[in-house]
Specification:
The protein has one domain. Helices cover about 30% and strands about 15% of the residues. The strands form six sheets. Strands 1, 5, 6, 7, 8, 9, 13, 14 and 17 form a nine-stranded mixed beta sheet that branches. A two-stranded antiparallel sheet has the order 2-11. Strands 3-4 form a two-stranded antiparallel sheet. α5 packs antiparallel against α6.
């Protein structure tokens, strides 16, 4: 009989336990894969309008992305304690990331006033928004998971700091399709002079079919890239080409049933053909009145570019588009690491009038009740100084606002601490925010499912505790998940 040393016994036992664990994990994976298959989740490959899980007030979303991280205590969340303790250290310390950060409190260089019946605090940087605060739902208690711009934007749009998940516009387009089959379900309006940090990653479909990624429309030159042939074709030639291509694709698909990517590609070709007729009419602003053009600031070169995108967003949802994403200037224009008063005044002046006009215009046309407008950056700013007159990034607190779509107007929700560093009352996470937007569109986010990597993915349930609808933001929530 062979004697085993204690070391040999442990080594052999370890390998044995490892095999048992591996076998168990593989068994679980097989069972889970079987569960996914047995769930019989429908896979969509078109943009036909689909019903939600329950009746809801909203049917479209306009997402105003304020890339760069707007400073909450310089726009919507004034902190008198910053003024009283100006130049003194933060008593509890804060996250310091760069050598030129100084742990001394920086009061806001901007003046505040209270506006509307709700008494909302708005700084002098936003003279237009202050006139519509009773139509807005302010969330002062947002928090997120990363202090870098790209990771923060990924989190805001996908519920994960890493790329590889669909953005919320893609999820909503996938779940609900769109009401106008001659236009995409999800349209992106960016500054024609350049991309926001992250670029096309911010409207990516990821593992959802390609049909649900954001389609860029331009506010300068040809409205849709690669749609018009460079050489004019004889009358009917383009339609004949597409009909022939459709026959080839249909035969290809018959031999490969269930290929969602192929189905999406065929749908894209057909959509492109339909867009050639519909999109130019929708995007032509010549039919707008002088009063409307003035409302959006199109007669002022400082406000015209952003105002044009906001006006186009209204025209798109009015025409039945499900989701429109609007970005600000290229890069990170709300990113003020120095001279926050000058930098904030510039980007606020460029965007304030257009965003306000959008709410006013939707409301007067009877579209605000059925349209969610969301104004949000990826994070907020620190209460301490950087470079003497600026602020660094802060994932622990920021303010966003909603309008329309059943969000409570004139509401001020949540609170930050006395310095504006951290959300402390009625905290709202990004997954909860996305779950709430889904709810207002008639979607239970837990039932919006797509199989990927052996599991059923959803728009918001990527946290340990799961996402929940923020009932306090809503007029008449149908259910709370």
């Amino acid at each position: 009989m062979m004697r085993l040393s204690r070391r040999n016994m442990l080594e052999l036992s370890g390998f044995g336990l490892g095999q048992v664990v591996l076998s168990e994990l593989l068994g679980q994976n097989r069972l889970f894969a079987e569960d996914v298959a047995a769930a019989n989740v429908p896979i969509y490959g078109d943009i036909r309008a689909r019903d939600g899980h329950f009746p809801a007030p909203a049917k479209a979303v306009i997402q105003l992305i304020q890339n760069g991280g707007p400073s909450q205590m310089d726009l919507f969340d004034p902190k008198p304690q910053l003024t009283r303790m100006a130049g003194k250290p933060h008593p509890d310390g804060v996250e310091i990331h760069q050598p030129n950060n100084v742990n001394s409190l920086l009061p806001s260089p901007l003046k505040f006033g209270k506006y509307g019946q709700c008494g909302m605090d708005v700084s002098e940087a936003l003279p237009h928004v202050k006139t519509i605060v009773d139509d807005l739902c302010f969330v002062r208690s947002m928090h997120t998971e990363h202090n870098n711009h790209l990771e923060g934007l990924n989190m805001l749009l996908t519920c994960n700091i890493f790329p590889g998940r669909p953005v919320m516009g893609a999820w909503i387009s996938y779940a609900l399709g769109t009401e106008n089959q001659n236009l995409p379900a999800y349209v992106v309006l960016r500054d024609p002079d350049g991309y926001t940090i992250g670029g096309q990653q911010l409207w990516a479909n990821a593992y959802l079919p390609a049909l649900y990624q954001g389609i860029e429309f331009s506010t300068r030159g040809a409205p849709i890239h690669h749609l018009t042939p460079p050489t004019p074709l004889p009358l009917g030639a383009q339609r004949a080409n597409l009909d022939f291509l459709q026959k080839l694709n249909a035969g290809h698909l018959r031999d490969r049933p269930g290929e969602s990517e192929l189905e999406a590609r065929i749908e894209n070709f057909e959509l492109a053909a339909r867009m050639q007729l519909e999109a130019p009419k929708v995007l032509d602003l010549a039919s707008e009145t002088k009063a409307t053009r003035t409302l959006y600031g199109l007669d002022n070169p400082v406000t015209a570019k952003y105002g044009t995108r906001c006006l186009m967003a209204r025209r798109l949802v009015e025409s039945g588009v499900r989701f429109v994403q609007v970005t600000t200037s290229p890069g990170q224009p709300w990113d003020h690491h120095s001279d926050i008063k000058k930098g904030m005044s510039k980007i606020a002046t460029e965007t304030d009038q257009g965003a306000t006009a959008l709410i006013v215009d939707l409301k007067q046309r009877g579209l605000l009740d059925s349209t969610i407008v969301m104004w949000a950056g990826e994070f907020g700013r620190l209460p301490t100084t950087q470079n003497g007159t600026g602020r660094d990034h802060n994932r622990n607190a920021f303010t966003i606002w909603f309008a329309g779509g059943g969000f409570k107007p004139g509401l001020i929700y949540g609170e930050t601490d006395e310095f504006g560093y951290k959300s402390v009352v009625d905290r709202v996470s990004v997954p909860n925010m996305i779950a709430t937007v889904c709810h207002q569109l008639g979607l239970n986010h837990k039932r919006v499912l797509y199989p990927h990597g052996g599991r059923l993915e959803t728009p918001a349930d990527v946290t340990v505790t799961g996402a929940k609808v923020v009932e306090g933001l809503l007029n008449n929530p149908v259910f709370v998940s």
